Amino acid sequence: MKKSSKLFEGFVHGIFLVLGLVTIACVLIITVYLVASGIPGIVEIGLTDFLFGDEWASTAAEPKYGILPFILTSIYGTLGAIIIGVPIGVLTAVYLAKIAPSSVKNVMGQMVSILAGIPSVVYGLVGMMVLVPGLRKLFDIPDGASLLAAIIVLAVMILPSIIKMSVTALEAVPQEYEDASLALGATAEETYFRVSLPAAKSGVAASVVLGVGRAIGEAMAVMMVAGNAPNMPDSLFQSVRFLTTAVASEMSYSSGLQRQALFSIALVLFVFIMLINALLNFFLKGEKKE
Amino acid sequence: MNSIITAQDLCLWYGQSQALKNINIQIPERSITALIGPSGCGKSTFLKTLNRMNDLINGVRITGTVEYNGTDIFSQDVNQLRKEVGMVFQKPNPFPMSIYDNVAYGPRTHGIRNKAQLDEIVERSLRDAAIWDEVKDRLKKNALGLSGGQQQRLCIARALAVQPKVLLMDEPTSALDPISTLKIEELATNLKETYTIVIVTHNMQQALRISDRTAFFLLGELVEYGDTEQIFSQPADKRTEDYVTGRFG
Q1: Exposed, middle or buried, A9 (CB in 10 Å: 0-12/13-18/19+)?
Q2: Are A112 and A93 in contact (CB under 8 A)?
Q3: Contact (CB<8Å) A190/B159
Q4: Distance from CA of A186 to the nearest CA of B (A)
Q5: What is the pLDDT of residues B22-50, one digit of tens each?
Q6: Which of A111, A195, A216, B74 is deepest in the core (most CB within 10 A)?
Q7: Going by C-beta distance under 8 Å and a sequence separation of 6 or more, which residues neighbour residue A252?
Q8: What is the CATH number of domain A67-289?
Q9: Which 8-state DSSP code applies to residue B193?
Q10: Which of residues 185-244 of A touch B (CB under 8 A)?
Q11: Contact status of B91 with chain A (Cβ, < 8 Å)
Q12: Are B82 and B18 in contact (CB under 8 A)?
């Protein structure tokens, strides 16, 4: 009896181990595959020409594979989304975690969850039908599909992760800190911004990094509102293409070096995401230490 | 001696349950008043009424009056009241920031931005709280790295930095070791030259050692209030006698 139960336990343990390994295997396979298929393109084009070339003309008679426009677009787009989304998200989190009466908090919290669950193609669709024509009229430009439209859509898309994680971090701030501040004669608002928010800073920073990850990896919604022309992002009203959309829009008909270059773009994107993940781990660890 | 705080017919309810029943007390200034009594007797509740920290709890209802310096505390600006009536909590609760920023928090809140002036306030407060020598070389270090006793003296320094008139202490030594406790007690004794101290304590020896006046609370009532020596040697009420001689509580 004892022996068989031990055997059974070992068996179960084995199954769980295998299941866990599946995830790890996926990560490893993707990494190896991306590196293996991304490197040849970079080698053939030349790292500097590839990363810093400012023209992408993959189907021209004399093709050019410079992805600087995509890199800059992805960086600007993400930065823009952060500049708009972080203040809104963090202030909303302060309101929800500290100020809002519980009924408001429940309703708004659920709305935020719904916002998180909307598929990105829906964001893209609404952006395309409402935001793009709106921008065109508002700024009197020939086409509203632009970097600005993508920034606005991304800003909305990152709100849920910023709000939810910041709320959690703010709610974890010990009441004693706030009591101490109030007992010194600080107002409730001063207390939230000068004690609660600083005490929750690593959680809030992690939420921002999570938002960055979400924004930089988003493809569908930005493809639908950014115009998707491989221009340098010189202005907010420029039609632009992101790293993600650069891969997605040409992959179906690509061949040869063009296809290799697309894999190389995916590799660059992958490196960005890895860096962001490392940053996220750094902040989360910092929070645990405190 | 002038009394700085006067409570008249003070009653307080948490929802349906009455936590304070007709408290009448006059607290003299520049002295130490100890509030003693068994757990749940209302002494902490009374203390937190004096700087209106009870306002933060839902469902609290208060009747009667409490006057601070002759004005009703419930009709004046609560932030101004708390600036003058400071508080030290049971568990040391420094902010998770530098020692300097902890002490400077209060003055900054009340509008002092000048660096030299802040430096001076921080040093004076830390000296008054008898912790300056231990922390002067690491003012920029995080306050959470201090020992429990040091943290509590830092919290006292933080409270002193806004120049209060009254210092409320809610069992300030219950989380501390005997040596740190001794330091806080010495500190309190020195501070009463300048400040009025009201201290809640479970430790009757502590009340006897440091306080001038003692108030004995039981089941939300103020049973007896008088000179500490008299309360401990010749209590007028049988219940006080039973408590201070350790027969219950």
Answers
A1: exposed
A2: no
A3: no
A4: 6
A5: 999 999 999 999 999 998 899 999 999 99
A6: A195
A7: none
A8: 1.10.3720.10
A9: T
A10: 185-187, 190, 194-195, 198-199
A11: yes
A12: no
What total of structural domains would you count in chain B? 1
Check CB contact of A180 with chain B, cutoff 8 Å.
yes
CA–CA dist A235, A233 (Å, integer): 6
Q: Which residues of B touch A190 (CB under 8 A)?
A: 109
pLDDT, one tens digit per residue, over B116-159 is 999 999 999 999 999 999 999 999 999 999 999 999 999 999 99
In a domain, residue B249? The reply is: no
Nearest CA in chain B to A199: B96
CB-based contact B82 A176, cutoff 8 Å:
no
Instruction: Specify the range with the lowest mean pLDDT, choosing from A9-13, A226-230, A284-288, B70-74.
Output: A284-288
d(C-alpha A64, C-alpha A50), whole Å: 9
Look up the domain containing B112 and give its range: 3-244
Indicate whether A290 pLDDT > 50: no
Contact A176 B93 (CB under 8 A): yes
Helix (H) or strand (E) holding B34: strand B32-36
- The predicted complex's ipTM stands at 0.91
Categorize the per-residue pLDDT at A285 as very low, low, confident or very high, splitting at 50, 70 and 90: confident
CA distance B48 to chain A (A): 10
- CA distance linking residue A72 with residue A67, whole number of Å: 9
Locate B68 and state its tokens: 């601070």
Contacts of A181 in chain B (CB under 8 A): 95, 105, 109
SS3 B247: coil
Say which CATH number the domain at B49 has.
3.40.50.300
Q: Quick check: A99 contacting B, CB < 8 Å?
A: no
Q: What amino acid occupies position B194?
A: T
Contact B191, B197 (CB under 8 A): yes
Contact B162 A182 (CB under 8 A): no
Task: Please state the pTM of the whole predicted model.
Answer: 0.85
Alpha helix ranges (H) inside chain B = 43-50, 78-84, 99-109, 115-128, 132-135, 148-160, 178-191, 204-210, 228-233, 238-244
Q: pLDDT tens-digit profile of B173-221?
A: 998 899 989 999 999 999 999 999 999 999 999 999 999 999 999 999 9
Chain A residues lying within 8 Å of B48, measured CB to CB: none
3-state secondary structure of B219: coil
Q: Count CB atoms within 10 A of the CB of residue B144.
A: 14
A vs B: CB pairs below 8 A:
65
What's the CA gap between A250 and A228, in Å, rounded? Answer: 11
